[in-house]
Amino acid sequence: MSRNPWNTPQPAVMSTPVALISSTAFSLGGVPASLAVVELGLLVATDHTEPMTLLWADILGAVVMENQLIVYTCAPKASGQRILSKFTISSGQPELLESFAVATRYLARYPWDTTRTLNEILQTETPDRRCLVLINPVGGSGAAERMFQDVRGFFDAAGIHIKIQLTEHAAHATEIAQTLDLTAFDFVVCVGGDGLASEVVQGLIRRSDWHDAIRFPIGLIPGGSGNGLTQSLTKLVNEAFFPENCAYLIVKGSPQPMDMMTARNDHETFLSFLSLAWAFVADVDLESETYRLLGGARFTVSAVAKVLSWKRWHGALSYLPAADDEPTPTQYWDALPASGDAPALDLLPPLAGPLPASWKTIEGPFTFFWATSAAAPSSDCHLAPGAHVNDGYIHVVAVPENLSLVTQAKILLALDSATHLEYPQVVRIKTRAYQLRRTDTNFVSIDGERFGGSTIQVQMHRGLGRVMCLPY
Ligand SMILES: Nc1ncnc2c1ncn2[C@@H]1O[C@H](COP(=O)(O)OP(=O)(O)OP(=O)(O)O)[C@@H](O)[C@H]1O
């Protein structure tokens, strides 16, 4: 169950609301109206209509224009998609309008707290926020720029100042993140796929101030072909998966801890926030580049070609098993001081050395291997139901055996509905550190990016980074 305070079911109308401020000096559509700031939202009433409540959960902000209070809301439609709309109410009393606007902006941003007095709220101008918006113009089907224009209103309504920058080439987002003045913005928004966000993460972790930089909050709008993190986040807080809802999570949200993993081979390290795919999935992901002109269909075409190729991947998975009764992993920053050149790798054995006695090993051949920190490493694949972006665990889903063409196809098709776990050939493992030793020389795919090496080790760091989201 989500602990998100905004998402608890709320009645549209309060029966006995206690008002923080209320006034009858308003008019709505030319008829006298009353407006009250109550626990659930703004309560509006006229003599001619049923009272209605604009919920704080849906309100993004408010401004005063001439003699009007304009409240921006984004209640979801039946499909769950949030739609930006304006509610306007008039009054001839400018100070009253301003009081309601200040209180609305405050309560739209911070959940109701009875310890704050009206005076405190009215004297606290909610600070504006600033964000850098990075857009990958070639991500997915190339529609990221237009997609951001469609959701930009959510940022404006919430009073967030934005600076837009289009990425001009591969690795541009890494360069930007490496030199970004972290004091100039409150967070960065990536409009693209997981690959764009991954580039930002690589830039942040390569800085000399990495221990501050890696906690710089990242928001995501799904404008790529692989949008696993946004899919996983929306699921966690019971939001529908639409670009508007992802914008809502950013503007109504605050920085939330996000697990990250260090992957290493014998010559480099890579910081991942989502997943490592090897075998079938990695080959399909990386080879689908060849079919980019086909848009989203490129993955299907690439997958069919790969199933028919009858390829198998040889190697061994070794991992630190998680005991059922082990204590919850400690958040990285609670356990370790901000020191060293990079996140500490205390759970991994030397790359060429023997494995710890407590580790287990599964030998291949592997047909399927995907390790994820979130439930959905890709928007249409519910790989590890129940996995949480801040549970401190890596969830490995693998098939360490040969499969018939038919069973392989059935398991792949079952990923969408998470029924793949019902197949006895599918193994699910929970771990904080693992090693993959393999004979093939293909790249694995980490958050959509290529990574090589015959031996790859991965360690989880619980809550190392931060993502903009509603509390989860
Ligand atoms: N202007 C650009 N020109 C070419 N490549 C770019 C540009 N901007 C970003 N990229 C590259 O695009 C890659 C993929 O981006 P992104 O994840 O946003 O989209 P995607 O369609 O989901 O990608 P993927 O190919 O991983 O499925 C990034 O890793 C980045 O290197």
Automatic annotation (TrEMBL):
Keywords attached to this entry: ATP-binding, Kinase, Nucleotide-binding, Transferase
Gene Ontology MF annotations: ATP binding; lipid kinase activity
InterPro entries xrefs: ATP-NAD_kinase_N, Diacylglycerol_kinase_cat_dom, Lipid_Phosphate_FormReg, NAD/diacylglycerol_kinase_sf, YegS/DAGK_C
Regions that span the bilayer: none
GO biological process: sphingosine biosynthetic process
A Pfam family reported for this protein in Swiss-Prot or TrEMBL: DAGK_cat
Protein name (record): Sphingosine kinase
